[in-house]
Fold this protein.
Amino acid sequence: MKAIFKERRAAGGDLDRSGVWRFRELLPFVDDLSQVVTLTEGNTPIYQATRSAEYAGLDQLRFKHQGMNPTGSFKDNGMTTGVTQAALLGATAVACASTGNTSASMAAYAARVGMRAFVFIPAGEVAYGKLSQSLEYGATVVEIEGNFDDAMRLVRELADETDLYLLNSINPFRLEGQKTIIIEMMEQCSWRAPDWIVLPAGNLGNTSAFGKALHEMAELKFIDRIPRLAVIQAEGAAPFYQLWTSTNESALRALEHPVTLATAIRIGNPVSWKKALRALEWTNGIVERVTEQEIADAKAIIGRDGIGCEPASATTLAGIKRLVSADVIDSSEDVVAVLTGSLLKDPTYTIGYHTGKLALNENDSRREIEGSFANRPIRVAAEKEQIKRALGI
Ligand code: F0G
């Protein structure tokens, strides 16, 4: 490894003390590092998760928790680069369509550098943690009466016709930043690539960035083999899974009415599907889909490990469980899953699950989610003896 670092340094790369080659190659467009717009994102922890491993049928499992970023999601890794580039170009206003996390992140980074931020979100479909962030960071929040795909189409058209600088993950500078999630992960794995990297999929930006990072790291000999990507979608919003499993389709067929309580990935027409297919090719990857019940239960188990995440992130554990059952992942394999967002992003979902009020459609009892691992609060009178009795202590 040292020889590789030496080679990189000779080529003009910057290494930090632990040997990670940093900005110059990663952000080749920035000469002056003081121009980087940052909230000290990245360097997120990687956790062993015993209960989750047991739940999925693995000997062991690690989670890299991107929810530990400044705005609570993986978006910060790409927003530092995206907003830096916007500032270098002299943009005064940035925009994105979002299911909530991109908007929260963009709003924060834009505020740091004094730019206007316009976020386009599907009305009534963004988790409160995320919506409150965009409001607090001072973005102009436009609630579109439509779904995410409508917002995405409109913001692309607006960016074409106006000076708005578009910061969705179709922006290549964002994907460059998101590659660092994988670079960090490999460092945390002591540069020994795991067998599998598992992640949720919505608009497919992360899948594309991870594939690119792994491909480039293998080319540069930072890793000597490429982990397989397992990309997990929610059953009701799984156009990429549909394409992946289809025998006769070569282009993504958009889903007009995607449904899932994991609102972060409620997307029917993912913009980066072509790059994501390339990522699967590079990594010998696969796509899986999981039900609402599986997502909800997996999320509760991740909580029991003392970690926690938002619903979309829990598709990872649900997907791993399926793939182990189907003998695609062997129980002894080395698996790292990426938790993309913080538990605190969507308290409504979490409380709904634990109090038996979570349902895909409130008017349809067949679509209720069972709180298999529910942990209900106990209500008691403000009286010591009654509390003792209720708790059995
Ligand atoms: N997990 C979380 C928590 C997300 O917020 C997203 C996407 C994904 C997974 C899926 O990642 O789109 O790269 O495939 N959120 C976007 C947003 C769409 O607007 O915040 P992807």
